[in-house]
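Researcher: Next entry in the queue.
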Amino acid sequence: MTEGVSICLVAEVRATILVQRSIVSSGVTQVAERDRNMKTDVKFVAEQLRDNEELERRASFKAALTAAMMSTTD
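Model: Structure for this entry, 74 residues:
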């Protein structure tokens, strides 16, 4: 009888370990996916900043050019 109970307990412990491994594996997968998404977001934001800086440079150049053209017509 004791041997049967021990076998059942061992089986239950093994099943619990398998479930915990599955949960941990799922959690690791989710963290990796979040990490990839965050890296993608960071790349996107960096790209947007570069685009904005380029737009600011162009606007500044246009303003300077316009100011220079206005001063020559005076």
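Model: The chain has a mean pLDDT of 91.
Researcher: Noted, moving on.
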